Amino acid sequence: MRKLFLLLWGLSLPLWPMVAQNRSVAKPINNTAGDLKGVALVIGNWKYPDNPLKNPENDAKDMAELFRQLGYEVIYYENLSTEGMEKAHSEFINRLGNNNKVGVFYFAGHGFESQKDNTHYLNSVEMRKYHTLNQGIEKSLSLATLWSDMTTTNPKGTNLLFIDACRIYKDRSWTRDGNYKGNKVDAPRGTLAFFAASPGQAASENAGQRNGLFTQELKKQLSQPNLEIYDLVRNTANEVFTKNDEQAPYWSGNLYGKFYLNPQNIPPPDPNEEAKRLQAEKDAEIARLKKELAKTSPPAPEGGVKKKFLDLPFAEMVYVEGGRFEMGSNKGYDDEKPVHIVTVSSFLMGKYEVTQAQWRAVMGSDPPELYNKNCDDCPVDGVSWNDIQEFLQKLNARSGGNYRLPTEAEWEYAARGGKNWRDGYTYAGGNTLETMGWFEANYQDSKHGEQGTTHPVGKKLANQLGIHDLSGNVWEWCSDWYSDNWYAQAAASQSNPENKDFGSKTNRVLRGGSWTYAPNFACVAYRYNSPPGTRNGNYGFRLVSQF
User: Fold this and answer.
1) Residues 6+ apart with CB under 8 A from 485
2) Could you tell me what percent of the chain has a pLDDT over 70?
3) Is the pTM of this model over 0.85?
């Protein structure tokens, strides 16, 4: 693993002899043919006296040549001192100010994150093991300062940063307690920062290969023509994580419109794109506010007849803000693999599983095969996927809503905590299932039948989004058809994926485990399935909606 230097915090420091300063070596590569697309600064640092690296030499040289071939003016440096890092920074910003098109920064070497100021730093070759945190900051380039300067200098252009460096030392960070898990960063508008690893992770040097794992996969994607930048990022991240599930590339982006690093025969951009983007932002904000308002004060439709937001007893919906996450698990069952990047749009999800009282309010009677009878607040059970379609049809006709079952991706995203998915919990909301849900070890704690049954909703702790019982109580039907190799399909990595037609189409997906099942079935990544006509005392559901 590419590691940070192990630095001593709050300890007396040995007076080790200083190593002679390694002067910067500048090797500029200039491309003067044709219309330059922008400026790229490429830095490779590997001659660290205390902890030398191998691959950054090839990483930096390969990336410099690749950007030159893509039509960028390339500024290339290797093994920079602290002063050299500052000068390269200044040279890059000055060149970018005269260009005002695209600014690209690439770095391969050692790096670290500081809990002191929540900033990522890139190490010069003057870093030493015995440096304190403040000395380490002084010997490094601040990424926050760099992208701030890029944004200020190039406000109407596109700014990209690719960082092949660790974000934490594997065994200890620069903190007093050693438990620091890293920073989440927010790139400014017009900037996309793409890191080799997530907060709190190290980056693989990819021993025995020409390039570090991140750069190896990034090069492959950059060589593909007509890849939009976010597709390039997602593809790279997916390939890296597939090859090393301890390294999940991380990006923070605030770009609008489409951008291609390697465009070939792409139609010119719409001159009205900026106006359209601004209008789309405005429309999205209005829609978001309408959603929030609808939770407490639903609007009246045409004709002035009020229709309730969800006119069922005990009904509450939770707003789940959309985002990207890593779906699946490389450590679980085969049908949970491979982990892949998925984008989910914002939606509303039921705070609780649909209850017996809610079912009866819509359908007029209990399901014919209800197992846990006479418990209004318990989730309805014994309902098939097909039964639920009839329920949804009647509910939407009655309420004027657009309620449906969640897709498998929506369900897992919400179960993982939405944008908090990086918490990495095993179950929905934590790692201790006893506090999160009802399962085989605790379902008889307050039984409602002779052999134990489901339990009233909301009696266990909610997850980060405030949603209850996503792990345990009843299995929850999803809208997707089930296929054991669905995740291996390209369609599974797209935005808002839903398996509508892939595979044998014999079984539908269920998620979350239930009151009679073991804990492993309640894991957020576990996938279950059953024929859509099956009724079972373990099967229930919850609602989602998008307006």
Assistant:
1) 335, 503
2) 78
3) no
